[in-house]
Every structure is written in C-alpha cells, then in structure tokens.
Amino acid sequence: MTQQGPSPAETVVGSTMLQQRGGGHRKAKPALSEGKKAERKLGLLLCAPAAIVMLAVTGWPIIYSVWLSLQRYDLRFPAQQEFVGFDNYAAVLSNGYWWTAFGTTMGLTVVSVAIEFVLGMALALIMHRTIVARGLVRTVALIPYGIVTVVAAFSWYYAWTPKTGYLANLLAPDSALLTEKLPSLLLIVIAEVWKTTPFMALLLMAGLALVPDDLLKAASMDGANAWQRFTKVMVPVMKPAILVALLFRTLDAFRIFDNIFVLTKGAQDTSSVSMQTYNNLVKGLNLGIGSTMAVLIFLTVAIIAFVFIKLFGTAAPGSDEGGKR
Amino acid sequence: MGKGITRRGRPPARAVAVFCTGVLAAGTLAACGSSGGLKINVYQAPEDNFQSVVDNCNKQANGRYEIVYNKLPRGSDDQRLQMARRLAAGDQSLDVLGLDVTWVPEFAEAGWAEEWTGQHKETASAGVLPAPLKTAEWNGKLYGAPKNTNVQLLWYDDRVTPKPPATWDEMIAQSKQLKAQGKPYQIVFTGAQYEGLVVVYNTLVQSAGGHILSEDGKSVVLDEGAVKALEILKNVTASGITDPSLTTFQEDETRQAFQQGNAAFELNWPFVYPSFAKEKKADLPHFKWAKYPEVNPGDTAKTTIGGIDFAVSTYSQHKPEAFEAALCLRSPENQKFSALKDGVPPTLESIYGDDTPLDPSKPEGSDNPSMGSTYPMRATIVDALKTASLRPLTPAYQSMSTVMSKVLSPPAEIDPRKTADRLRKELNDALESKGVIP
Fold it and tell me: Which residue among B77, B109, B435 places its CB closest to the CB of A76?
C-alpha cells in the first residue's frame, strides 16, 4: 500500500472545520442563498451548546493543568504559591524516578501491545471463522474485557498471593513473585494482556470482515498457501484496521494505572508514569509537579498518536480511506 | 484474652451502631439522636469499639449534638488522602479529624486544623506524656488532642536469650553466636519499603544522637548520627542474621516470623503480645520484652512513637461542639476503655498506673480486664514513652517518608556515606516540594 496525499485524519479534521466555519471560509465559492445561510446559522446555533460544553469539560481542565504546571503550588504550603515558569519541567525531566517510570511504562506498553496483537489476531481469526455457536464463542471471548479492570486486578493479586493464591501455590509455591521486579512486571503484563486482548481481537475482527472472500479464493487458486494468504492478502487489506487497533491499545497501555496500583503499588520500580503522577499530585498534594507530569503524559500520548497517524498513515475508523480497497 | 492490643483495630462489632439505628427508626431513645439535627462528624480510622466511645459521648452531650463516627479506610495513606482531598476543597462536613501523629504539621500548615486555645488547650494537654503531646504541636501551637500513642519494644524468648541485649552491637553479636550454635538467631523488624522502615531508621538516628532535620524542620541535617544509623541498618541486614524476606516484612509479617520460631529478637509494637498469647499460649511465659536496644552504650534508646491526635477542622461549622466532642472522645475514661478494648496505648500517664478493671463494680477477670492484665509490659511502655522520639516534624513529612523508605530499600545495599548523600539531596528537594517523589 502506498502513501496517499493528505492523511485521512487530516482530511476529517479539515472538513469538520470547514463545516463549522461555514461559508466564510472559502471566498471563491459562489455566495450562498438566503435560505442556505439561515440553515447554516441554525446549524451552528444548534451545535453551539454541545461545542461549548465540550470546551468547558475538556478544554478548560487541560488549560488549567498547563497553568498549574508552571507554578510552584503545593497544597501543604499554600503561602508559597508562585509562578516558576518551566522549573517544574526541569525538575521532572532531570529526575531519575521519572525516567525509570517512563522506561517501565514504555517497556510495558511495547511488550503488552505486541503480545496482545499476536493473541488478538489469533482470537479474531477464530471468532471470524467459527461456524457453530458463533454468538457464544464471541461472547465468551469478550468476557475478560467486560470485567472492571480493578476487579480483575484484585483477582490476579489474590491469585498470586503466596500461600493463599491458587496460581502462587501452583506455579511458585515458595516465592513471593509480586515482591521482585521482573516477575511482577511479567505478572502486570499478563494481567494487561488477559484483559485487553479481546478488545484488540474485536477491532481486528472488524478488519477481517473487510477481506473479500473472492480475493482469498483467487489467491488460493493461484497456489498461495494459508500463511501466504494471511500475510500477502489479509494483512495488507486489514492494515487500516490493524493500525487503528494498535494505536488505540498503545495509547491505552501507556496510561496504565489500575493493574499496577493493585498488583504492586509501584514497589520495586514497577511504577508507571500515571502512578507517579498520582503519587505526586494526589498523595503528595503537589499540584505543580503533578500537573507537570500530567502534561508530559499528555504530550507523550499526543506524540504517539502523531507518529501512528503521520508515519504509519493510520486512518480514523470510519473515514473514507479505511478499508475501501 | 480475647480482645487485645491491635495496631489500629479489626473489623468492628457493629452491635451498638445497629442497635441505635434500629431505635432511631422507632424514635424512642434519647441517647441515639434527638439532638435537633446538630451532627458532629468524626473521621477516624477503623477501631473495633470506637462506636461505644462515641455513644458514651453522645450520652454526655445530652442531646445538644450527636457525634457520628465516619470510618476512614483501613490503609493510612487512604485515610490521609480522604481527609486532605476533602479539606483542600473546603468541605464543611468534617468536624473532628483523627490524624496520625505525622500529619499534624501538614494539616496545621495547610490551614486545615484549628488551633487549640484556652480551656480546651488545657484539658487536651493535662496529664499527657511529653512525647505524645509534642506530636500535636506545630510552631509552638497546639493543633490536636492526643488520643492514643504507641511505642515499639524489643521482644525475645528468655529460653533462647536469658538476658536481652542492651545495645545493637550486643544484639548483633548474640545473634551471630546463636546462629553458630544452631539456635533461633534472626533479628526481625519492619524492613519492607514503607513507613515501618522509616520508623526503625528514625529510632536509630535519634538513639545515636543524630538528626534528620533541623529543630525547626526547615532544613535537612543528616549528621554523623544519621550516618551511624545507616551503618547499623546495613550491618544488621547484610550479615546473614535476619530473615531472607525481611524486605517484605511489615508489622504482621514481622510478628509471624517471630512466632514461627526462627527469630531470636523482634522489634515491634505491643500488639504482638495478645497475638502471641492467643496463638502460642504454652510459650507465653517465656515471651519477654525489654526496651529498644541502645546505639551508644549508656545512651537510652529514643524509640519512635505512633498514635492518633484529634484535630478540629477549620471548615467545621460547629467548632465549639467539635472541640467538646474531641475532648470527650479522648477523655481519661474513654482512653482507658479504648486501651483495654482496642489495644491502643493511652497518652495519659495516670492511666498506666490505674489498677481498677474496666467495670469497677465487678472483679477483674478475662472479660473484665485491667491495665495490668492487658498490658503486662506497661512499665516498659511508660519508660520507653518518657524517652521517646518523634519522626521529623514538617508539613512535607509524607514526601520525606516516601523518599526515605525508597532510598533505604533494600537496607542490605546501603552504602552509609553514599546513601546519606543521596538522602540529603532528595530529602532537601522533598522538603521544598520541588522534587519528584517516587
């Protein structure tokens, strides 16, 4: 598949803006009739409340946390609040704990998304191909995703508790896995994978549905074996769906919090960036440093999304480019 | 001894609460809330029998107000978080706050705790042992009424060591000797990466005559005494005389390790005694206690204390009643009740010498305990309390503690000089709320 013109996401954003700005945007277009103008105006008015609410609930907190991140603001020292510019950013970015957490988070993200992708693809193929009890198979496969993450995390935690947990008794009767760094990271990955593979599979299955049967049959006629059909026909056709699935999961995985919070509480350097933000912002009551971390996470997530969309050409689901080839 | 000394308390017997709610519905009994709607909300850690204390005080209030016991979560981080979060938002529905002794400066400095003055101050501080009283002060003002205290002791088996070691050096030497003889030899304490490790370290620093912070709590000192403490911590954990999984030991794991018989010495709070009495009755006569070992021979150990202070929220809409309620909840009678029923050592010296059982009209027995029967170690506790030390007093204690437990973990990998330098730097940042906490 080759790279085409403006990326799909850009097109989507562009056209939305166009609609919002109405006729004023392109002078070259012929003037709209009175009726059309009135219609546009009404449309804008009808959109306005939703747009304003959106701005208030998403825009304002973002702006406010950026503003907080530029201040020395600790609830325990209310008298010492002052504007410090980028001092907080310097403090966080020069701190070893932050980079350790950043590395841990990145590692967890890459490893868990990679495993989820492989397993998710397998699961998607199974769900796609099932002939008998299709609904049942799909429902069963989705159960882990339907369980609240914290609840699932607690059941993992208890399962791995030495002496009382069934998994601990079965696999490692004499050790406390959650007290060692690598084993606990592994357990966190397992919990993540178990929980979100169905989501991945769901997105990939939508991609599989796009692969025309004729194409596979034709490939088969040409002598392609199953693996070749998968890599040469299915995957290329599915690419948009695959990239969307990977993007969604990567963004989600990077913000991992609940599993770590329950399983290790961030001990032995298993803290993620979100955990650390929580520790500084909520536990430490340090609004300045905490907001700085929140902004940094926001930026990282934005960069990840940018890389996926610009470099890999991920299309937003439902946009024109997606899967129409 | 069914009910004994616990750290904070166990799941509650809700009988009284249920009874009162039932009666409330029927609307008959005065003591259960015909107070004209004035409610004083107390936020306190879970304590089995605290509701009875609340009921007592409601009876005393005689309908002027009704105290409502709002149980905070079990974990102390969660307790602090709930109160801090709500107070930061100016929540007016909190009246009396049960603060851990390390939170008082934080809540006072943030303007969340009301100062105690005049008559209230006098009542709150009368007869209180000096160390617990000091935990309730910040900048020379009183911000809390000490409710209960706590102090760690050295526990040992007199069949293994007839005479307890007086100093750390002696203890380490004895432990090595016992190991060579094939007897129980381990030294166990709270070595996990959490507040418990900070408590041990603080005791060592103070006992060595050192300081972590300056007197006013504004700068990091970490002097020779603090380095000496690091040396001891390293020495005791890196010479094969403690449990291999010490780094996962919190209070209860420490208790279990000693009860399982591998350890010769245990440093822990007095809650270990009733547990031992219940679970190893046959060995109880040999389960002995002594003051915490000294660092410098001849200098009494300065053991770190714990406990709860009652503060009144600045956002409370009923401050006079809140002060009154707080005073009642920690009155001598109620402190004694809590000490006997919930195992939380009182802050008033006089209670330790009180020999009348819980119900003075009946003879003493297993269902009618006295201070003597519940606290056979009471003389040692008072002794330890009199020379006790406090954890550093600063509003930034929470961050400091997180940093300390992190830097000190695992204790076996401490490099005294280097670790001290790292501590100094990171504590400084934490103190100025500049640094990142792990």
Answer: B109
Rounded alpha-carbon distances, angstroms, from residue A231 to A224, A227, B133, B404? 10, 6, 74, 53
Strands B263-268 and B186-188: parallel
| Residue matched to tokens 């900070």 | B198
Query: Of A78, A284, A288, which is closest to B437 when you measure between CB atoms?
Result: A284
Domains of chain B (ranges, CATH numbers): 13-150+306-379 (3.40.190.10), 153-303 (3.40.190.10)
Residue with the two structure tokens 């400084």: B428
For the complex shown, is ipTM > 0.95?
A: no
User: Nearest Cβ partner of B436 from A75, A95, A267?
Assistant: A95
Residues 6+ apart with CB under 8 A from A113: A246, A249, A250, A253
Is B108 in the A-facing interface, judged by CB distances under 8 Å? no
Task: Give the helix/strand (H/E) hosting B116.
Answer: none
- Give yes or no for a cis peptide into B410 (omega within 30° of 0): yes
Strand order in the sheet with B96-100: B66-71, B39-44, B96-100, B305-312, B145-151
Instruction: Kindly determine whether residue A179 and residue B248, on different chains, have CB atoms separated by under 8 Å.
Output: yes
Nearest CA in chain A to B397: A284
Give the integer Cα–Cα distance in Å for A204 and A123: 9
State pTM to two decimals: 0.77
Mean pLDDT of chain A: 84
Q: How far apart are CA B26 and CA B39, in angstroms?
A: 19
Least confident among A289-293, B157-161, B302-306, B398-402: B398-402
Is A176 in contact with B248 (Cβ distance < 8 A)?
Answer: yes
Average pLDDT taken over every residue of chain B: 89
Nearest residue to A247 (alpha-carbon basis) of A325, A303, A186, A189: A303
**Angstrom distance (rounded) from CA B23 to CA B28:** 6
Alpha carbon distance B43, B326 (integer Å): 11
